Amino acid sequence: xxxxxxxxxxxxxxxxxxxxxxxxxxxxxxxxxxxxxxxxxxxxxxxxxxxxxxxxxxxxxxxxxxxxxxxxxxxxxxxxxxxxx
Length: 85
Fold this sequence. Notes:
Blueprint: H1 5-34, H2 40-84
Helix pairs in contact: 1-2
């Protein structure tokens, strides 16, 4: 079943918030490492985990954009079909 434009926009906003939260986590992690609160190996491990999460969010965003694009094209085709009848 197709999702409404509102649902897609809400999902997009959720993804943006998650990306912002991850960026803040990376900043805090880096600050902790620079203050020598954690060793380099742990910093690298945690940073890699966060980078993987960022990558996953970016992939979800790309899928969502493709879905929005498909929905827009479909809506345009439906409108064009309605006008031609």
